[in-house]
Design a protein that fits this description.
Blueprint (H helix, E strand, L loop, with lengths): L6 H4 L16 E3 L10 H6 L2 H4 L11 H11 L6 E4 L1 H13 L6 E4 L5 H8 L4 E4 L18 E5 L11 H10 L5 E4 L20 E6 L12 E5 L1 H14 L6 H12 L1 H24 L2 E3 L6 E6 L4 H10 L2 E5 L9 E4 L3 H17 L2
Helix pairs in contact: 4-9, 5-6, 5-8
Bound molecules: 4'-deoxy-4'-aminopyridoxal-5'-phosphate.
4'-deoxy-4'-aminopyridoxal-5'-phosphate binds next to helix 5.
EC number: 2.6.1.9
Keywords: Amino-acid biosynthesis, Aminotransferase, Histidine biosynthesis, Pyridoxal phosphate, Transferase
GO molecular function, one term: pyridoxal phosphate binding
Length: about 350
């Protein structure tokens, strides 16, 4: 750190993203990307002609993409906010709706960026422990008088919270934003998007990075009452009005047209997940029931650290945190059936070697 850094950031603990190795080919099951490529329409959308227009700024309003998304979700364009990955929206939400007086609450075990944004804006936050079975107890968030942030399904557990429970949280915190992070909703969960008509405090966040195979393009979106969207737009126009580049906007528009392709991939991934859950349980793993494109699992014979390190040596990359209640758990992204076979084979070898 240089001597120029503002003292208000010196204690900030930045987010550590998952490993993105550029030099070696791994079976990459560590950052919840889709194993399937973008749709042919998306690939075609990034033509040489479009690339040659990169001298021009993108449309800061993202009008065309907003209209397409609005039609897909049965809302109006004024209910849609677009962002550079959904991380961008989480950042803007903490900036817009919280401060040292207006706190936030989220599960203690959840997406690692929530506490980073809370610290960045000096937000008083409560990190609420999960239940014994790793589920979120919705009652902990009722009448809490803070911005509530819940990933549904939660990450890294993959477990879901029901619509009725979300409604209870919304009803009991009418003066606070309830942000439901639906990054993994397309793999079998139930979206709460329709509730935006009933609750003007609901902010639903989704991403193109998972079910829509576009993690590399950085595109996220939020759906909410027009008032909340206007607040987010104000923050965007006060920080970076061109937050989505021309090529990503085009890719996003083509992806909406390819919704059937993506939902079919999501179904395939959910099926591969169910098989992986079963197979790992047969191998003596504890595997939580997941509704996401990953599973959270621990071996009952080998420590999480050994498994993570040995899998990496054998060319399979998974996510490992190695602390607290989840010390021995690995988060394993669901790849293609072929990639999962490699995972099972390498894991079986390690269990044998470590006996
Ligand atoms: N929310 C959750 C729960 C996530 O796991 C992630 C990705 N790691 C994100 C949001 C952010 O994803 P992106 O910025 O790629 O949209």
């Amino acid at each position: 750190m240089s001597r120029f850094m503002s003292p208000c950031f010196t204690g900030l603990e930045a987010y550590t993203p998952g490993e993105q190795p550029q030099d070696q080919q791994y079976v990459k099951l560590n950052t919840n990307e889709s194993p399937y490529p973008p749709s042919p329409a998306v690939v075609a959308a990034i033509s040489a002609e479009e690339v040659s227009r990169l001298n021009l700024y993108p449309d800061p309003t993202g009008r065309v993409l907003k209209e397409k998304l609005a039609a897909l979700y049965g809302v109006k364009a004024e209910n849609i906010f677009l962002s550079n990955g959904s991380d961008d929206i989480l950042n803007f939400a903490f900036m817009a709706f919280c401060d040292s007086e207006r706190g936030a609450a989220f599960p203690e075990i959840s997406y690692g960026f929530y506490p980073v944004y809370a610290d960045l804006y000096h937000v008083d936050c409560v990190k609420i422990p999960l239940k014994e079975d790793f589920g979120v107890d919705y009652r902990d968030y009722c009448n809490i008088d803070r911005m509530v942030v819940i990933a549904n399904p939660n990450a890294p557990t993959g477990m879901e919270i029901s619509l009725a429970e979300i409604e209870e949280i919304l009803k009991t915190n009418p003066n606070r934003i309830v942000l439901i992070d639906e990054a993994y909703i397309d793999f079998g969960g139930t979206s709460c998007v329709d509730l935006i008509r009933k609750y003007d405090n609901l902010l639903v966040v989704q991403t193109y990075s998972k079910s829509r195979s576009m993690a590399g393009a950085r595109l996220g979106f939020a759906i909410a009452d027009a008032g909340i969207i206007a607040d987010l737009e104000k923050i965007k126009y006060s920080t970076n009005p061109y937050n989505i580049n021309r090529l990503t906007l085009l890719a996003g528009e083509a992806a909406v047209e390819s919704n059937t392709y993506y939902m079919e991939n999501a179904r395939k991934i959910a099926k591969t997940r169910e098989n992986a859950t079963e197979r790992l349980r047969q191998m003596g793993f504890t595997v939580l029931d997941s509704k996401a494109n990953f599973i959270f699992a621990k071996s009952n014979a080998v420590s999480g650290r050994v498994l993570y390190e040995e899998l990496k040596k054998k060319g399979v990359l998974v996510r490992f945190w190695g602390k607290g209640k989840i010390e021995d758990f690995l988060r394993i992204t669901i790849g293609t059936p072929e990639q999962m076979e490699i995972l099972f084979a390498k894991a079986a070898e390690i269990l044998q070697e470590q006996k």
